[in-house]
Every structure is written in structure tokens, then in C-alpha cells.
Design brief:
Elements lengths: L11 H15 L4 H16 L1 E10 L4 E9 L13 E3 L3 H9 L3 E3 L13 H6 L4 E7 L4 E10 L6 H49 E2 L2 E2 L3 H13 L6 E4 L6 H10 L8 E5 L5 H9 E2 L11 E2 L1 H4 L4 E5 L6 H13 L1 E2 L8 E2 L3 E6 L3 H6 L5 H7 L2 E4 L10 H16 L5 E2 L1 H9 L5 H16 L4 E2 L6 H9 L10 H19 L4 H8 L3 H10 L5
């Protein structure tokens, strides 16, 4: 760019013009709109026929007009279609090459001027100023001002346009960068959506959510067994989602169009369980007023899910073994066997192998049902999944309650992470639903909305300075933790927990009250 003549002084009106143009530039991010406004202001203030900007295309070695405001016959400002010409052509080519401004009072006397450009033909160019648009990094192009209405272009006009050219050049560069950032942000948004969808597919297998290494192993096993009709044994603590996993296996496998029939083996007495599983004939027992199909017959061709099979009475285990060996059933009170075809999926909240060693479960039945074992880890062993699960439950219950999706504050999430969740995923879901209900329309779930026992556990799990505690305080702290551990281990069974601790049931109840333990 040519040196700005320091002898040309600027008055208040000139400074106001610079301020106006600068403000207009920085308030608009859209490049076309910004240039249209700036050039219109330049045209009005300088009282000229037209103002235009030609940018440099280095690769093609061309200049091209991107915005033009000119005075046509109707007197309406108009933007010309993009017009390209060689970057060494005419006045613009000279300014670009020399990186100097030029003021031409009479273009007919200047050899650099050519009338072959559409813009100059339409305006019948008589005089002009052309200044380079330059940043510290590179030459951007040139700025034209054509035909002064009154008198001639002055050195002050040249200086003002040179100052404006710096502002415009930087603004064009910034607008381009802004556009690139917007485009990058858009691509990031699309990539985020893709990754989120991929994560949902990877970490949310039809409702089984997890990103931990333990859950990856479960998902890998699912991939192997889903497309088969192999018998599956799912083991895991109460609330880990065993029935959900069984449904995933069935509804994504070769029998998905066939029935899925489930029965909780621990929920019924032996006689009722036998009737539910095998069915009965009319008159088989008091109340049997009609024939009834059992679950094996109802599931014929599909899947039978025996939930908590470890609770099946020993005599019933023998009858189940025959069904698995012969694929035949005989209803209670019936005299004939019926052939059935089914896939068996079983579940247990106990270690069945240990049950076999303790002779509480038939060994031959165990080996029949555990052809393909899958162990779902308890939530305390995959706490890294808690944020994913909590977010999923927040979204699910917010939709059901028709409330905005709230987010967990870092403190609330940390509290959830510190709890051991003896009830596993089911307990976490209940806690999230409760917190969301308490929060009402709040957009954040803080610690105050969490259950007392969740917060108490988090407080207790903190560091404890034994050097500042009395014997009584330290003993109470250890005692409280032992009571909590026993209750969690026994799923809240106070009589069993009392036996584990060597206390009477009343003694345990006294300690629960003393330490304000809530389960």
C-alpha cells in the first residue's frame, strides 16, 4: 500500500465517517451484507457514481468483483454478477502488482486505464481512485471509487479510502475466517451427531447401556449368541437388567417372530410353579376348572425365559431336566406327553456354580442351562457407566413427565458415583426418577434432590482423619459402615444382616436408628 500522506489532516466529519464504517463492518458477520453496506456508505459519503471491490484469486491469477454499488439509469444501487479478469490487467492490475494506491483525475490520459471492463463501460468512468486491500499476511484485492460528483477527487479522499481499505481488508479476512469457523462448527455438529448415534448404537444395545470394559465384554458375547438358538444363562445381581438382556437376545435372534414367555421361578410356590410351567388339565386339582397351557406350550417355537432359576425347588429341577433332555412336557394331571420346541434362557442372581457345590442346585441341570453363560457386572463394578445411565434415565423420565430435560450438576453426579448401588441399575433409575420429580421444572439436579442415604454414603465415603477423632467417633464410623455393608450384602434383609454381624435383630434395628441408616 502507498504511504499515507501525513500532511493531509482529517476533520471531525472524516473521523465520524471512519467510525460509522468501522461500526457497520464489525456488526455484521455475513460477508456479502457487510460489503454491500460499506460500499453503499462509501458511495453516499464520497458522493461518487460507484464503489466496488475486486478480490484476488491467486491460483487462477485473476481479479473478480464481489460487490459493486453503482448509479444506473434508474438510480437504483445494484450488485453486478461476478466478473473476472487477469490480475495484471488495467489499473487494478497495476495497484495489485505495485501495492500502491493511485488517484487518476482523468482516466482518458492514463495508459493503465481500459474501458473493456463492464463496470467501467456502464459508468462511463471519468476519474477514479484505486487502493490496495492488504493485511499483514497478503494482498486481498483492490477497492475502487469512481467519478466524483462535485469537483475532483482530493488527497484527503485518497487518504480516507486508504484508511478504510485497511479496515475493509481485515474485515474481509475475518468474515472469511468466521465463515470457515461456521463451516467447521457445522461439520463438527454433524460429526457429533454421527458419533452420538454411533455411541448410542455401541453403548445402548436396545436399552442395555454401558461404555465400560465390563459391558463391552457383555456386548461382545451378545454378538456371538444372538443369531443362534443356543441356551443362555444370564447371571447377575438383582436390578442389573437380566430380563432385558434376555429380551434383547430373543427379539434380535432367529426366533424374534415367535413367542417370548417369561416366568419368575421364585415368585410362586412349587405346586403353582409346576402348573405355570407345564400347564394342567381340567380337574387336576381344586380350582382347575379348565385345561391350561403352560409356558413351554405357549412358547412353542419361541423362547422360554426362566427368571431366577436358582429359586426353583429341587424336585422341580428334576422335571425341568427331563423337558430339556426330551423336549417333551406333561401337564399336571395329564397322562400324555406333548413335544415342544423352544430356546431356553435362564437367569440367576446367585452364583449357580456355588449353588451346585453346596448341593442346592442339580449339577446335571446346571450344565444343561449354562451352555453359553453371560455375567452382567453389578453397577458398583462399572461406575464409569453411571453418567451414561443417569443421562438416559433423565431424558426418558423427562419425556414421560413432560418436563424439560434437567442435567446433573457435577456435585450431584459425584455423589451418585460414590454410592455402591446395591439395587444396581434399577435402583439408579428409581433415584433419578425421584430426583426429577422433586426438582419439578428445574433445569439442574443438585445434591439436595438426592435421597438421604445416597448423600450420607457420599459423606461417609470421604476421608476420615483418625488423628483428630476420638475412639468413640472412630468406632461409631466403622460400626455404621459394617451395618451398611451387611444390609447391602443381604439386599436389606435385616434378620440375615443381623446374623452376619452377630447381633440380634433388635440390636441391628437399634443401630439402624442410631446411625439414621435408610435403605
Amino acid at each position: 500500500m502507498a504511504e499515507i500522506n501525513p500532511e493531509v489532516s482529517l476533520n471531525k466529519a472524516d473521523l465520524d465517517l471512519l467510525y460509522e464504517v468501522s461500526t457497520a463492518i464489525h456488526s455484521i458477520h455475513d460477508l456479502d451484507e457487510m460489503l454491500r453496506n460499506v460500499l453503499a456508505k462509501v458511495k453516499d459519503v464520497f458522493r461518487i457514481d460507484g464503489a466496488s471491490i475486486a478480490l484476488h484469486d491467486r491460483k487462477r491469477k485473476e481479479l473478480y468483483f464481489i460487490q459493486t454499488v453503482e448509479e444506473l439509469r434508474e438510480g437504483v444501487p445494484q450488485k453486478l454478477a461476478e466478473m473476472r479478469f487477469p490480475d495484471d490487467y488495467g489499473v487494478a492490475g497495476w495497484v495489485l502488482r505495485e501495492q500502491q494506491s493511485v488517484l487518476i483525475p482523468d482516466v482518458s490520459k492514463d495508459k493503465r486505464f481500459t474501458k473493456k471492463l463492464d463496470l467501467q463501460q456502464k459508468l462511463d468512468t471519468r476519474s477514479m481512485i484505486c487502493v490496495p486491500l492488504k493485511t499483514r499476511k497478503k494482498m486481498m484485492g483492490v477497492l475502487y471509487a469512481i467519478n466524483k460528483h462535485v469537483a475532483e477527487f482530493s488527497p484527503k479522499d485518497l487518504r480516507l479510502l486508504e484508511i478504510l481499505s485497511v479496515i475493509i481488508a481485515v474485515s474481509i479476512e475475518n468474515a472469511r475466517l468466521y465463515g470457515e469457523v461456521q463451516q467447521y462448527a457445522s461439520s463438527l455438529e454433524k460429526e457429533n451427531y454421527r458419533l452420538k448415534t454411533e455411541c448410542q448404537t455401541r453403548f445402548n444395545v436396545q436399552g442395555i447401556i454401558g461404555s465400560s470394559a465390563a459391558m463391552h465384554r457383555v456386548f461382545a458375547l451378545l454378538d456371538k449368541v444372538i443369531d443362534t438358538d443356543t441356551a443362555v444363562l444370564i447371571q447377575g445381581e438383582t436390578g442389573t437388567g437380566k430380563e432385558l438382556l434376555a429380551k434383547i437376545i430373543h427379539y434380535n435372534g432367529p426366533l424374534k417372530n415367535k413367542p417370548f414367555v417369561a416366568e419368575n421361578c421364585g415368585a410362586l410356590s412349587e405346586n403353582l410353579l409346576e402348573s405355570e410351567i407345564f400347564g394342567h388339565v381340567k380337574g387336576a386339582f381344586t380350582g382347575a376348572i379348565a385345561d391350561k397351557k403352560g409356558l413351554f406350550e405357549m412358547a412353542n417355537g419361541g423362547t422360554v425365559f426362566l427368571d431366577e432359576i436358582s429359586d426353583t425347588p429341587f424336585a422341580m429341577q428334576t422335571k425341568l431336566l427331563r423337558v430339556l433332555q426330551e423336549n417333551q412336557i406333561r401337564p399336571v394331571g395329564g397322562s400324555r406327553y406333548q413335544r415342544v420346541d423352544f430356546r431356553l434362557i435362564s437367569s440367576s442372581n446367585r452364583d449357580l456354580y456355588e449353588q451346585v457345590k453346596e448341593r442346592k442346585f442339580r449339577e446335571d441341570l446346571f450344565y444343561r442351562i449354562q451352555v453359553f453363560p453371560i455375567v452382567i457386572p453389578p453397577l458398583r463394578e462399572r461406575k464409569e457407566d453411571i453418567p451414561l445411565l443417569a443421562t438416559h434415565f433423565l431424558e426418558e423420565h423427562a419425556a414421560r413427565l413432560d418436563r424439560p430435560v434437567a442435567r446433573l450438576t457435577p456435585g450431584a453426579l459425584e455423589t451418585l458415583m460414590q454410592f455402591d448401588w446395591p439395587g444396581n441399575v434399577r435402583e439408579l433409575e428409581n433415584e433419578i426418577e425421584r430426583a426429577l420429580t422433586l426438582a419439578g421444572g428445574a433445569t439442574e439436579i443438585t445434591e439436595e434432590y438426592l435421597s438421604g442415604r445416597i448423600k450420607a454414603s457420599a459423606d461417609y465415603s470421604g476421608t476420615f482423619d483418625t488423628t483428630r477423632a476420638t475412639i468413640k467417633e472412630a468406632t461409631a464410623r466403622v460400626e455404621r459402615q459394617m451395618v451398611l455393608d451387611a444390609l447391602r450384602k443381604t439386599d436389606g434383609n435385616r434378620s440375615q444382616a443381623a446374623r452376619e454381624l452377630g447381633l440380634t435383630r433388635q440390636g441391628l434395628l437399634n443401630k439402624i436408628r442410631r446411625y439414621e441408616i435408610k435403605l
